[in-house]
Amino acid sequence: MFKIVRQVFGVRNVAVISFTSSLYQVFNQLWQLWWSLYLLNILNAPITVVGLLSTIQSSSQILFQLPGGILADRIGRKKVIVLGTTLRIVGPVLLFLAPTWEWVIPGMIFNAFSSLYMPAFNAIIADSLPHERRGAAYGAYRTITSIPNIVMPIVSGIYIDAMGLEKGVKTGLLLYIGAAVVAMILRALLLKETLVSEGEARSSMKEVLGYDARNLLSKFRGTLLAMLVVACISGFTMRMVYPYLVIYGVEVVGLSKSQWGALQTIATGIATAFYLIGGVISDRIGRLPNILLARSILPIEALGLVFLRGYNQLSILFVILGIGGGFGGGGIRGGGGMGGPSWQALIADIVPRGDRGKVMGLMGTMTGLINLPAPLIGAYIWQSLGPETLLLLGSGLGFTVTPLILLFVKEPGDKQT
Prior knowledge:
The chain is an all-alpha fold. It has one domain (about 10-190, about 215-410): Growth Hormone, Chain: A (Up-down Bundle), CATH 1.20.1250.20. Helices cover about 75% and strands about 0% of the residues. The protein contains 21 helices and no strands. The chain has helices at about 1-10, 10-30, 35-40, 45-75, 75-95, 105-115, 120-130, 135-165, 165-190, 205-210, 215-220, 225-255, 255-285, 290-295, 300-305, 310-325, 340-350, 355-370, 375-385, 385-400, 400-410. Helix 13 runs parallel beside helix 16. The longest helix has about 30 residues, at about 225-255. The chain starts with a helix and ends in a 9-residue tail after the last helix.
C-alpha cells in the first residue's frame, strides 16, 4: 500500500490536486455541515425555502457542467481548473455577507458557477495516471483528501456548540475563503497541463460550440448509459433527502450537534480506511463489485435514522455506511451521485482521453436536469406527509439502482465480473 501511495503521489498533478482539495475540506466542514440549520434558524428560511435554495444551486450547476467539459477538451484542463477555483472564492464571500435568505441566492449561483471545473478536475487525474493503477490512484487520492473529514465533523460539532450557530458558520466561511485563495494560487503555479502536452487540444470553433454533439450522445449506450441512469437515480435521492438529514437528526431524533458531527466522523473515518483498499481491489478484480457493494449499502442511512434511536445504535449504522462509501461506488460519502474511486475509474476505462471532459460534463448536466426538482419534492413530502415518509421514500428509491447495476453495468476487456 505504501508503494502504491508513493507512486500515485509522485505524480505532481495528483499531489497538487490532493493537497489543495484537502485544504478545502478542513474548513468546509466548519460551515457546510450546518448550512441547512443556519438557513432555518438564523436567516429564518422556511423548510420549503431550504429546498428551494438547494434547487437554485442545482439548477445553476447544470448550466456549467457541459461547457466546463467542452472547455476542458478545448483549451486544456489546467486553465478551466484555475478559473473554477477563482470563482469558488466569490460564492462564500456573498454567503458570508447575506443578511437574509434572499441574499443567499447570488452566492449559491457563484458556487454553482465554479462547478464548471469538475469535468476538468476528474479528467486531469485520469490523464495523469496509468490504466493499471487507475483504481488504486483514485482510492489513494480519495484517502488523502478525506483525512480532514475524519476529524473535522466532530471538531465542527464541538466548535458550533461552543461558538453558536451564527458566529460559527460565519467564521467557517471566512476560513474557507482563505483556503480557496491559497488553493487557486497553488493550482495556477504547480499544475501541469495534460491535454495540450499530448497534442490533443481542439481548435475547431464548431467543436467548441458542440458541433459533434450527436457523436457525443452516441457514446451513451450500454454501460455508460446504465451508469448515467444510476447516477440520476442516486443523485435525485441524495438531493431529495440529504439537505434535511441534519435537521432530522438534531430536531427529530434529538442528537446534539456534537453527536451529529461525531457520526459523520465515524462514517468518514471508516470510509477513508477503505478507499485505497477498494481501489486496489478494483484494479485486481474489477470495478463492478465495489460499485455494487457501495450502492447497495448507502441507502440505509435514511432508513436507519427512522428506525434506530440513540447515539449508540446510530454509531453502528454509520460504521456500515463508512464501509459502503469506502469501497467507492458513490453515494453521499463516496462522492455524490457520480462519485467514488471505482466509479470514476470505470468511466476513465471506457471513455477516450480526448472525450473525457465532454462526457463527464454531459453526465453532470443531464443528471442535474433530472435532479432539479428533488429538493423541492423533499420539502413538500416533509411538510405534507412527514419527515419519516421522506426518509423512507428516499431509501426505497436508492435501492432501485442495485438491479440496474447487476443487469446493465459491464466492465471493458478481461475484467468483466
